[in-house]
Specification:
This protein is an alpha/beta fold. It has four domains: 125 residues, Response regulator (Rossmann fold, 3-Layer(aba) Sandwich); 118 residues, Alpha-Beta Plaits (2-Layer Sandwich), CATH 3.30.70; 102 residues, no CATH class; 107 residues, Homeodomain-like (Arc Repressor Mutant, subunit A, Orthogonal Bundle). The chain contains 20 helices and ten strands. A hairpin with a 6-residue loop joins strand 7 and strand 8. Helix 1 crosses helix 5, helix 2 runs parallel beside helix 3 and helix 11 runs antiparallel to helix 12. 34% of the residues are buried. Keywords: DNA-binding, Phosphoprotein, Transcription, Transcription regulation. This is Response regulator.
Length: 512
């Protein structure tokens, strides 16, 4: 429905326009005002889409009324109605943003044509607005999926630069911003807390939440330059812990160091995991910087390299090496004649790191604990070896439960559903596997990361659809699973070395 207001101090002029417009546009809702002041009042009450405004009227003239109404209702369109002797006024009005003017007297056909142009413009703007709203709604629905996948890929995989830049742009964040990782450990049986933590981060508005893995929730937090790192992180940790209300037993927040860019956030995440290795601490959050170095003689960069190596070996299932690393650590403590009780605690922390990484892979195990205080280093080696063997067994049992052709089943599923908003989390639920583990399977068994494989499926589908000349490029964009034609074009060119238009021209040319 479009509403039109006729403003003229001469009744005969108003009724003449009313008759012409009612005949030309039967669906138009039309009201009248006999001067500028009444027009201003009716703009509020009647809310017209377009106003036909006479210029010369007693009291408030047409130009004054346009200025007043336009400032309060910028979307209303104006068509000035004027005689030849006030043509100069009409020119001024157009400078104020008036869409067109009608000269008195005009033929009915000229009036219908002039008003028709404005009505057409209003209809086009409404369609465009509706289309934008639909796209915005679609984007809002897909953003949580994008967010989860980005966090997963950033923490566990290499992300193709075009994907990272474009996806991050969707979330309105610069890849150059400083960030830091946090990991929230929730108690067994409290997996429902995931939604509450996600809502809390969204409410704070300063981070992305990854998929729940085991009992751990990874979070990438954006630095607030107005606060110190510690102040921001402590506030965030307390907010996250408030989800647990009064009972925080089993909850813990690990906080990694600040990362200069998103491309380096994986290191911060590993630090957050190490920081959360002892959830029994009275204060339920800890900074990695406050965590003892996992070694006795190693310091600084070397200690970091060893930590990273330790993580990778666990993730890759290199249990002989993991066992060797732990035994080497005990040997160092023994050689340095370190206090046995302190050494046992440090070894336990190493084993907790192993259990955290296994939980991250979806392998639920009890937190390893020594059955008793070791009497000597020989006994410490034996106890540590026993706990490692139990975790290794859990890892092997998990692998055995996964069918050999699982990755092929997932691959087929992704290919068949690539046009949907398909996330690692959704695939994880479908195949009852941890999203992080699926990401690892893609990389290990197919040699590509998940987003690259999904993109390949979509681009291949797009190429097949391009063979149909009846389909527009915009239709193909949406049909293969993208929401933005510009993004689709950029990804297509990155993957195929030619733009979609160039590819289609060649394709259809060959067919011709």
């Amino acid at each position: 429905m479009i509403k039109l207001l006729i403003v003229d101090d001469e009744q005969i002029e108003r009724e003449g326009l009313l008759a012409i417009l009612s005949k030309g546009f039967p669906d138009l809702v039309i009201e009248q005002a006999k001067n500028g002041k009444i027009a201003v009042e009716m703009a509020d009450e009647f809310a017209p889409d377009v106003i036909l405004m006479d210029i010369k009227m007693p009291g408030m003239n047409g130009l004054e009324a346009v200025e007043k109404i336009g400032s309060a209702h910028p979307d209303i369109k104006f068509v000035m109605v004027t005689a030849f002797d006030s043509f100069e006024y009409a020119r001024q009005a157009i400078k104020l943003g008036v869409k067109d003017y009608i000269l008195k007297p005009s033929k009915a056909s000229e009036i219908v044509a002039t008003v028709g142009k404005v009505l057409k413009q209003i209809e086009e703007e409404r369609k465009s607005l509706e289309s934008s709203k639909l796209q915005l709604d679609a984007l809002q629905k897909v953003l949580p999926v994008v967010e989860t996948d980005i966090v997963t890929q950033l923490l566990f995989d290499h992300v193709h630069e075009v994907h990272l830049d474009e996806l991050v742009k969707l979330l309105d964040v610069s890849t150059e911003n400083e960030t830091f990782a946090m990991t929230v450990l929730v108690p067994p049986g409290s997996e429902s807390a995931y939604s509450a933590v996600k809502d809390k981060v969204r409410q704070i508005g300063s981070g992305w939440v990854g998929a729940l893995n085991g009992r751990q929730i990874p979070i990438i937090t954006f630095r607030d330059p107005e606060k110190t790192f510690r102040s921001q992180a402590v506030t965030m940790a307390r907010e996250l812990l408030s989800v647990a209300k009064s009972d925080t037993s089993g909850w813990f927040v690990g906080i990694g160091n600040v990362s200069a860019s998103l491309n380096q956030i994986r290191q911060s995440y590993q630090e957050a995991l190490i920081a959360s290795m002892d959830p029994t601490l009275p204060v339920k959050y800890r900074f990695y910087a406050d965590t003892p170095v996992l070694g006795t003689t190693t310091t600084g960069q070397l200690a970091k390299q060893l930590e990273k190596q330790f993580f990778e070996r666990i993730r890759l299932g290199q249990w002989e090496q993991v066992h060797s690393d732990v035994m080497e650590f005990i040997r160092q403590c023994d050689n340095e004649r370190a206090d046995l009780l302190q050494a046992q605690q440090r070894v336990l922390e190493l084993l907790w790191v192993v259990s955290r990484v296994l939980q991250e892979m979806g392998i639920e195990i009890d937190t390893p604990l020594f059955s008793r205080q070791s009497a000597d280093y020989r006994q410490l080696r034996a106890e540590a070896g026993l706990l490692l063997d139990r975790m290794r067994q859990s890892y092997s049992e998990r692998l055995e439960r996964i069918e050999p052709d699982t990755i092929q089943q997932i691959k087929q599923y992704v290919a068949e559903h690539s046009h949907e908003d398909i996330s690692l989390e959704a695939i994880g639920k479908k195949f009852e596997l941890n999203p992080f583990y699926i990401s690892k399977m893609f990389k290990d068994q197919l040699g590509v990361n998940y987003i690259d494989f999904l993109t390949e499926c979509r681009i291949e589908k797009a190429k097949k659809l391009m063979a149909d000349p009846e389909r527009s490029m915009k239709e193909i964009t949406f049909e293969v699973g993208y929401n933005d034609p510009n993004y689709f074009s950029k990804v297509f060119k990155k993957m195929s070395d030619v733009s979609p238009t160039e590819y289609r021209r060649t394709l259809l040319g060959k067919k011709g």
